[in-house]
Amino acid sequence: MKKQNVSDTVIRRLPRYYRYLDDLHVKGIVRISSSTLGEKMGITASQIRQDLSCFGEFGQQGYGYNVDELRTEIGHILGVDNQHRLIILGVGNLGHALMQNFRFRDAGFLLEAAFDIDPRLIGTEVAGVPILDYARLEEFIPVHRPDVAVLTVSQAVAQSTADHLIELGIRGFWNFTNVELSTSVENVRFEDVHFADSLLTLSYRITER
Amino acid sequence: MKKQNVSDTVIRRLPRYYRYLDDLHVKGIVRISSSTLGEKMGITASQIRQDLSCFGEFGQQGYGYNVDELRTEIGHILGVDNQHRLIILGVGNLGHALMQNFRFRDAGFLLEAAFDIDPRLIGTEVAGVPILDYARLEEFIPVHRPDVAVLTVSQAVAQSTADHLIELGIRGFWNFTNVELSTSVENVRFEDVHFADSLLTLSYRITER
DNA sequence: TAGATTGTTAATCGATTAACAATC
DNA sequence: TAGATTGTTAATCGATTAACAATC
User: pLDDT-derived band of residue A4, with 50, 70 and 90 as boundaries?
Assistant: First the structure.
């Protein structure tokens, strides 16, 4: 029975299921039971079945789950076959690293362009993706209609850049600045990658007390 | 009354408190109540007081909290004044970006060196930090005794690199490879930064259904 | 003193685990 | 058919919120 609103706790586990299932698939494993998967992942079989039940019925009694099928279903739930379009704002070290290394395709995203204000970067390409002048954003967005903006600008301009992009219609932000963004506009989603927060929790855990 | 084992949910909120308090401190704000802070952060005053009570009593009835004092206390709990030492494994785009941009100092870490196998990188420096030959790891670690290794190597060698480092005594890993690491050695902590998982949750949230 | 706000206990809510009938 | 394993309901556990006496 499908749920209306699935809790954030469940959503945050989906990519992990997706990764494990993809791995099993690559290894040529065809079927898996919730208990075997649970063992591998270090969680209970109950949790897996409970999580999946939010979205439908994907298994078969006495058999378990077809790995490829379940992987595809979870991918679908996550929206990886939606071909979301995305742009990068700020081609510093981190923006550049993402352009060069991150498999946007695997997450179902198409990287259309990157933007910067540095004249030495504008007009060049990284991994086949053009770096355009930030000033040309306003003409670019209505034409290409990207869904998501990756924010790899400096902290100082993070909020103002976001505001500008929201005004132009962007509704999803993958935020790498160590700033929490906010807006009064409806349906804008921020996904923060807080490096510092992550390292600090590690610091806590290795601190003797 | 201090708790023995503080739950992970609480720990993961501490860096956020730390950030907000630091911000208030920089803005020159001296005191704050749990309700005002809660409003700013979008959480309840109850939660703040409950969270803090795991570690001690930091406020004063009728007054609230001294911003600078509470910030310092939370920093202490997180271990930022421990001067943890850290090394980077793999100076690709991402390793390089972290060396150049990330404020390790602010998180209480001292970046001692980076390691790579590329002869074009070995012997050079980034932001004043030397890049050394991976082959020299075994002589380096016993001398400098780093606490944490940042893993920015390729997926393919992630687990084997971790195994090697664990053998040499490293007990904390800040893991940027999209692989989940494991070990049978006690007291080893992994903190994963899963870019793909993060982007996939954003994908879910912007997908119409 | 009166008002404000803490730390903590109790109540509520949500998430995880266990149990089991249904069924492949 | 018998064994295995699902999806779901019920029980448990943990986390969040509310309430309030203590007190600055």
Answer: confident
What are the 10-residue block averages of pLDDT along chain B, 209 residues in total?
Answer: 84 98 98 98 98 97 98 98 97 97 97 98 98 98 98 98 98 96 96 98 94
Domain-embedded: residue A209:
no
- Looking up residue A26, the CATH number of its domain turns out to be 1.10.10.10
From A65's Cα to the closest Cα of chain B, the distance in A is 22
Residue in A109, A191, A198 nearest the CB of B201: A191
Domain limits for position A50: 8-76
Give pLDDT tens digits for B39-92: 999 999 999 999 999 999 999 999 999 999 999 999 999 999 999 999 999 999
The answer to whether residue B202 is domain-embedded is: no
Q: How far is the CA of A79 from the C1' of C14 (A)?
A: 26
Residues B14 and B93 both lie in one domain: no
Query: A45-94, pLDDT tens digit by residue?
Result: 999 999 999 999 999 999 999 999 999 999 999 999 999 999 999 999 99
Residue among B111, B109, B106, B123 nearest B26 (CA): B106
Output the CA torsion A158→A164→A170→A175 (10° steps): 0
Nucleotide nearest to A57 (CA to C1'): D7
Say if the Cβ atoms of A108 and B203 lie within 8 Å. yes
**Token pair 């070990």: residue:** B183
Residues A109 and A62 in one domain: no
Residues 16-45 of A near strand C (Cβ < 7 Å)?
Answer: 43-44
Q: Would you call A200 and B80 a contact, using CB atoms and an 8 Å cutoff?
A: yes
A200, A205, A209: best to mutate for the B interface, most B CBs within 10 A: A200
Place of tokens 């003409």: A139
Domain count along chain B: 2
The C1' atom of D21 and the CA atom of B79 lie apart, in whole Å, by 34
Of B16, B13, B172, B15, nearest in space to B86 by CA: B172
Question: Do B100 and B154 share a domain, yes or no?
Answer: yes
A174, A88: one domain: yes
Nearest-angstrom CA–CA distance, A129 and A114: 7
The residue count for chain A: 209
Q: Is any Cβ of chain A less than 8 angstroms from the Cβ of B100?
A: yes
Which residue's structure tokens are 């793909």?
B196
Whether residue B108 is found in the same domain as residue B186: yes
pLDDT 10s digits, A109-142: 999 999 999 999 999 999 999 999 999 999 999 9
Does residue B195 sit in helix, strand or coil? helix
- In the chain, the amino acid numbered B148 is V
Claim to verify: residue A68 and residue A103 sit in the same structural domain: no
Among B79, B101, B103, the residue with its CB nearest the CB of A92 is B101
